[in-house]
Every structure is written in structure tokens, then in C-alpha cells.
């Protein structure tokens, strides 16, 4: 009896394999007529995101629809550039550059997957091609577009001494790149970080970022699709190590774990946008920082965190924090100010001056939190700011020592979302024309280069 069932089982399996082989062999010769109707397409142009030389894009999808009431074949689908094209397509599960007699069921769709796999960057960074669809009556061309940047790919965990980076070549960092002497970055330069990557300005080294209005130096993820600018923790951080000296003007630092860690270092920073960073926008450890026209938003712990004391001055800056990822558990302060570190070591906070700034968040009652050891110097001054301060039992910014002329109303930002970060204020904002003139005279131009005049607005934007 067992032999009988075994033989039946072998027969059924053999029959199934034979049927499958027969079906697959039939797929090479469909008995369908070539399509004469116009095909329908999900888009006329497939725009792939920017890639750099010798890198590959994400995969994009083009759908092709058969409007007929009968199964058909598309006589020919091919790339204009053929096999030499940087674009790669997959049609009906097969990769290639030319396809003939491609079946498409009645009232059904065919998926074509598209990616670009760049080689050496062309002189003209705009790179295009076409997918051609031939029917018996016509030829339809679907445009393929990508932008291929010339880039220098730094080896994993590399060390450099002195370099000058400029807009003609993007920089791609893997692991940790350490600068031991002097790094200058010119306007318009893009610096890309792979997952977990960092840039470290080593002890006694120097960083100079010479961005300009509308030509900011951009630090962001190496994943080129713009959606990743809205996702924190795509890379690790920029660290300014002890005794290093840095000057940053017009930079965008987006999507890191910590945007800047200023660790016992000196920093002058102006006209900088630091947003969508997982833990901190700026983490300052016993540092010396002077900044103005800073625009900060969306960090799980704090937009600006100052620990273990130091000396700080910030003017006409916007420290927002609307971090709201579903997995977030941090307090999302605008400012954490302390003369302690995590191990309860102490150092003097010799100065912490904030003038014509905005501190506003959602997750906690107060945007500002102090964590201090009263036995150690803790000097601060908040003069003419807008501050979210709902819990006056913890801190009352309208009456406490060191707080002058502060406002506790909603600043009415334009759009605080991750994909926008439009942190100028609306015309009805209490920040409008409420700034202290002496601060505005020191910094007469806002982030956009607009004159503040005699009636300055609190924050980074006039």
C-alpha cells in the first residue's frame, strides 16, 4: 500500500514539473496579436533623484496599461542609448535594454522598474534617456531623467590633513572622516554621509564653512531622494573636538543623530539651518559659541543642549522643536542649559546670553529647562525673547532673575513640518516688530539678507 501511494505521489509531482516546464516554454511564443491601440502610461517622464558618479539610485516604477479587451504583445520596448545607457530597466521580470513581443494581458498593467547606475560623471550633469514603446501604429517615448554629481568618495574611516572642498565636487563620507589640520568648504558644496558616518575636526584643527545666501553648504544623508531630508538619524554627526576652532556661515545640517557636537571647542556660527536631527541640533560641551540667525527644529532631546558650562551668546535665532516621530520618547526641549554632564561633573557656565530669540516647543510645558549645581557658576541672561513657558512653577520667564522683556505667546510659525521647516513668523505673530533695537543693530540683516531696520522682528527672520 505504501509503494502504491509513493508511486502516485511521484507521478503527481512529475506531472506538475512537466506542466510547469511546458508553461514556461510556451511563454517564449505567445499566440497574441501585436497591440495596435495606444498604450496608457502612469507618467510621461520618470525623474530619478540625483546620484553621484559610480553610485546607484533607488528603483522607480513605470506602469504601462493595455486598454484592449484582448491579450496583446508589445512588439518592442527599448532604451534609446541601448546597452551603453546608465539607466537600467527591468521589464516583466527581465533585465536588459531591448525587449521584443512583451505580453500584456487585457485591461491589465505591466510594471517596468527603472534605476540609474552611474559611471564617471558626465560634463553635463543632467543625464537623460528614453524608453521607446513600439506598437503597430506608433512609437511612444517615456523620458528618463537623472542628475549625476561628480563626487569624491572618502574611504571608510579615513584621515585627511588639509583640504579645500568646493561646488565642483561633492564629498561622500563613509565611517568617520577626521581632519587633522585645516578644512575649508566653499559655497554650494554638498557633503553626503552614509549611514552612521561622521566628520571630526580633530584637536587643534580648523573648520571654515564659507556658504552664502541661496548657496549654503549642505550636510545631509548620502541617500539622494529628498524624502530622506525629513527623516532623522540618517548619519551620525559633525564633531568639533577639543581646542578646535570653527567658523560656519550659511550651512544646512539635516537628518543626523546630532547635527553639531561642539566639544570643548570654539565656534562662530551664523545663518545656519539645523533641522531634523535625532538627538540634538547642537550639543555643546564646555564650549565657546557665538551665533546669530540660527534656524533650528525637530530634535528628540533638545534643539540646543548646553552641558558642563562654557560661554555662549546667541542673537536673533529661532530654537523651535516640534519633534513628533511616533517612536520618540524624549522631551524635545528648545534649550537644555546645564553646568553638569551625565556623570555629574561640573564646570562654570560663565555666560549664556540670548537676545531677540524664539524658544518654542510642544512636548513639554516649558521650552527651556535648567539643570544646575548651585555650587558652581551659572550665569545667564534672556533679554527680549519669545519663550514657551506654561509651567511657571518650574520657571517663570516673565519674573525670574535673568529674564528681561520676554513674551510667552505662540510665535505663529509658517510651517514647522519636517518637510518644510518654514520658521518665519506670520504677520499676526507677537514676534513682529517686538525685538530689541540694540541687538538688531549688531546683526542688521536677517537669515534671508533682509534689513531688520528700526522695528526688528524676534527670531532669525524679519
From TrEMBL:
Specify the protein name.
Right handed beta helix region
Question: SUPFAM superfamilies from the xrefs?
Answer: Pectin lyase-like
For this protein, the record's InterPro entries field holds: Pectin_lyase_fold/virulence
> What organism does the UniProt record list as the source?
Algoriella xinjiangensis
Amino acid at each position: 500500500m505504501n509503494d502504491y501511494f509513493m508511486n502516485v505521489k511521484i507521478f503527481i509531482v512529475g506531472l506538475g514539473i512537466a506542466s510547469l516546464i511546458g508553461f514556461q516554454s510556451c511563454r517564449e511564443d505567445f499566440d497574441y496579436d501585436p497591440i495596435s491601440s495606444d498604450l496608457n502610461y502612469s507618467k510621461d517622464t520618470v525623474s530619478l533623484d540625483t546620484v553621484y558618479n559610480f553610485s546607484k539610485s533607488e528603483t522607480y516604477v513605470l506602469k504601462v496599461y493595455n486598454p484592449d479587451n484582448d491579450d496583446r504583445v508589445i512588439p518592442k520596448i527599448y532604451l534609446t542609448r541601448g546597452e551603453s545607457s546608465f539607466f537600467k530597466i527591468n521589464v516583466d521580470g527581465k533585465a536588459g535594454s531591448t525587449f521584443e513581443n512583451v505580453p500584456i494581458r487585457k485591461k491589465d498593467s505591466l510594471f517596468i522598474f527603472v534605476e540609474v547606475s552611474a559611471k564617471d560623471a558626465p560634463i553635463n550633469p543632467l543625464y537623460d534617456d528614453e524608453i521607446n514603446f513600439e506598437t503597430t501604429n506608433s512609437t511612444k517615448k517615456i523620458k528618463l531623467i537623472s542628475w549625476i554629481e561628480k563626487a569624491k568618495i572618502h574611504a571608510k574611516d579615513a584621515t585627511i590633513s588639509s583640504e579645500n572642498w568646493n561646488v565642483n565636487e561633492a564629498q561622500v563620507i563613509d565611517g568617520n572622516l577626521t581632519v587633522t589640520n585645516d578644512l575649508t568648504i566653499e559655497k554650494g558644496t554638498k557633503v553626503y554621509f552614509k549611514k552612521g558616518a561622521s566628520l571630526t575636526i580633530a584637536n587643534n584643527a580648523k573648520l571654515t564653512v564659507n556658504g552664502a545666501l541661496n548657496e549654503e553648504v549642505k550636510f545631509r544623508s548620502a541617500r539622494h531622494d529628498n524624502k530622506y531630508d525629513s527623516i532623522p538619524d540618517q548619519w551620525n554627526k559633525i564633531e568639533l573636538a577639543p581646542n578646535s576652532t570653527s567658523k560656519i556661515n550659511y550651512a544646512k545640517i539635516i537628518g543626523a543623530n546630532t547635527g553639531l557636537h561642539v566639544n570643548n571647542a570654539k565656534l562662530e556660527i551664523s545663518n545656519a539651518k539645523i533641522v531634523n536631527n535625532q538627538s540634538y541640533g547642537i550639543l555643546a560641551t564646555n564650549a565657546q559659541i557665538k551665533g546669530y540667525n540660527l534656524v533650528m527644529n525637530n530634535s528628540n532631546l533638545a534643539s540646543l543642549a548646553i552641558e558642563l558650562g562654557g560661554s555662549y551668546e546667541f542673537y536673533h535665532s529661532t530654537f523651535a522643536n516640534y519633534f513628533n516621530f511616533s517612536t520618540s520618547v524624549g522631551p524635545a526641549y528648545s534649550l537644555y542649559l546645564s553646568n553638569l554632564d551625565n556623570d555629574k561633573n561640573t564646570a562654570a557656565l560663565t555666560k549664556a546670553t540670548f537676545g531677540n530669540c524664539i524658544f518654542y516647543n510642544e512636548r513639554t510645558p516649558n521650552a527651556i529647562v535648567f539643570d544646575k549645581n548651585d555650587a558652581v557658576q551659572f550665569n545667564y541672561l534672556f533679554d527680549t525673547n519669545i519663550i514657551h513657558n506654561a509651567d511657571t512653577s518650574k520657571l517663570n520667564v516673565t519674573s525670574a532673575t535673568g529674564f528681561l522683556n520676554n513674551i510667552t505667546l505662540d510665535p505663529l510659525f509658517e510651517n514647522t513640518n519636517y518637510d518644510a521647516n518654514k520658521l518665519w513668523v506670520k504677520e499676526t505673530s507677537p514676534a513682529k516688530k517686538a525685538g530689541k533695537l540694540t541687538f538688531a543693530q549688531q546683526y542688521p540683516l536677517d537669515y534671508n539678507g533682509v534689513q531688520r531696520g528700526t522695528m526688528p522682528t524676534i527670531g532669525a527672520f524679519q
